[in-house]
Amino acid sequence: MQRFYPAIRKGEGAFSTSDNMLPKCFVNIDDYSREDIFRILESAAKFKQRPNRDLLEGKVCATLFFEPSTRTRLSFETAVNRLRGRIIGFSDAATSSSTKGESLKDTIMMVSNYADLIIMRHHLEGSARYASEISPVPIVNAGDGSNQHPTQTMLDLFTIYETQGTLENLTVTVVGDLKYGRAVHSLIQGLSHFSPTFNFVAPEELRIPDKYKAFCDQKKIAYNEFTDFSPESINSADILYMTRVQKERFTDLMEYEKVKNIYVLHNDMLEKTKDNLKVMHPLPRVKEISQDVDDNPKAYYFQQARNGMYTRQAVICDLMGIIVD
Amino acid sequence: MRKELQVAALENGTAIDHIPTEAVFKVVSLLQLQKLDHRITIGNNLKSSKMGKKGIIKVSDKFFREDEINRIALVAPNVNLNIIRNFEVVEKKKVVLPDEIIEIVKCNNPKCITNNEPMKTRFHVVDKEMVELQCHYCELKIRKEEIELM
Predict the structure, then answer these.
(1) What does the alpha-carbon distance between residue B34 and residue B40 come to, in Å, rounded to a whole number?
(2) DSSP-based three-state secondary structure for A125
């Protein structure tokens, strides 16, 4: 297969140090440098070409989902299954010893006796970072409360690269709940290495928090803010990243009623968009993308979800020091 | 005119001067003075030409380690620290906020792992001048006025 990512030179990036120490864990997208990201994307592209491999033969991966998440868990478990790894774990904290009062530390220490790698989702923020500091085996953060979900960001970056042929200098319009949207916050961090321009489109109550604007300023990233979902913000975009505007996020329900139909993408709104535009969404979608968009070739959210599996295969192999040919 | 000392003189030990009045008992707590059997004098709401009112803490025969004393910077970054031997000030120090704060500050995020697991808290000092901390675990940023001690 043609190598379409820049080659990583020896000595670059946090993971290509002289002693060749691999990272033990993937907790936060910020832990990964630009070179690390490219290394993962390169592997993910290989898995997309050929997802079924024997790379985890004889290995056991644990999926500890203290908080239920069917979609993410299935993606991770399929990734492991397609690599011939075995899976242990639980999909609901009710079936784990945490309901008996067991500490996270004890659960991690116990499971690490059995598994070669732990994939965990937990409702408490910082839980994955803590687990990474105590676990003798690699930890993959599959979401810690509203804090981080780094494999979502990695699959978003893979999808952007795949569809645009580059990560550099793209205009990314993000729409919806920019205040609480974890996927959006991490995407801003993940793309920060690549000189993007952001259009932030959100109702007043769900505007992008100041700390992310300060982050953009610090990284010299250009951004525009919109409170209306205007043709200007859509037609200038290379990527249109839609998110859900959830009723429960509003303190003023009148405000929700006013905006609930504004941040909905319809097919006719894509008429004057760039040829290379792709519409992305972390899913699940509710009403923010009309069904009539699904057949438009610019709709890419289902392929994006599928890319999650390849990206997770790449992350798991990377953490276990497995070279992907 | 004879200058009258507001707090008794110290023969040997540490005098912490110019403590903001609202921070005096936080300093007591940060230095764990309640656990010491040394002679301790605490003065508060004393007259100060610089501050209007101030607090002073004098601890006899006690010389704190740097990492102990630097904790004070969390609540009172501008205190004067005087090391006293034989009634003379032999050394004046300023407190310096460390890069990392472990086990002293509570995270204000109830959903942070540190508030739900028997473990030490850990904060990175992201702004030494404004005293802004960031939780190592949940990444919440805490401003000086929001700091809650353990």
Answers:
(1) 9
(2) strand
Distance of alpha carbon A237 from alpha carbon A240, whole angstroms:
6
- Best residue in B108, B116, B127 to probe A by mutation, most A CBs within 10 Å? B116
Q: Inter-chain contact B141–A211, Cβ cutoff 8 Å? A: yes
Where in the sequence numbering do the catalytic residues of A fall? Answer: 71-72, 100, 121, 149
All residues of chain A having their beta carbon less than 8 Å from the beta carbon of residue B143 are none
Mean pLDDT of A77-87: 98
State the nearest Cα–Cα gap between A110 and chain B, in angstroms. Answer: 16
Q: Are the beta carbons of B79 and B72 closer than 8 angstroms? A: yes
C-alpha distance from B113 to closest chain A C-alpha (Å): 5
Count CB atoms within 10 A of the CB of residue A58: 9
Give all domains of chain A, ordered by start, each with its CATH number.
Answer: 29-148+308-319 (3.40.50.1370), 151-305 (3.40.50.1370)
Within 8 A of B136 by CB-CB distance, chain A residues are 126, 129
**Residue A36: pLDDT above 50?**
yes
Interchain proximity A125–B109, CB inside 8 Å: yes
Segment A305-323 mean pLDDT: 96
Task: Decide if A129 and B136 are in contact by the 8 Å CB cutoff.
Answer: yes
Contact state of B116 with A124 under an 8 Å Cβ cutoff: yes
ipTM topping 0.90: no
pLDDT in tens, B33-83: 999 999 999 999 999 888 899 999 999 999 999 888 888 888 888 898 999
Nearest CA in chain B to A106: B117
More confident residue, A248 or A106: A106
Q: What does the pLDDT look like over A172-191, one tens digit per residue?
A: 999 999 988 889 999 999 99
| Contact in structure between A223 and A200 (CB atoms under 8 Å) | yes
Comparing A46-55, A196-205, A259-268, the range with the smallest average pLDDT is A259-268
Cis peptide before A209 (omega within 30 of 0): no
pLDDT band at B2 (very low <50, low <70, confident <90, very high): low
Between chain A and chain B, the number of residue pairs with CB atoms below 8 A apart is 50
Contact A91, A165 (CB under 8 A): no
Domains for chain B: give ranges and CATH numbers. 13-94 (3.30.70.140), 100-149 (2.30.30.20)
Would the CB atoms of A103 and B117 count as touching at under 8 Å?
Answer: yes
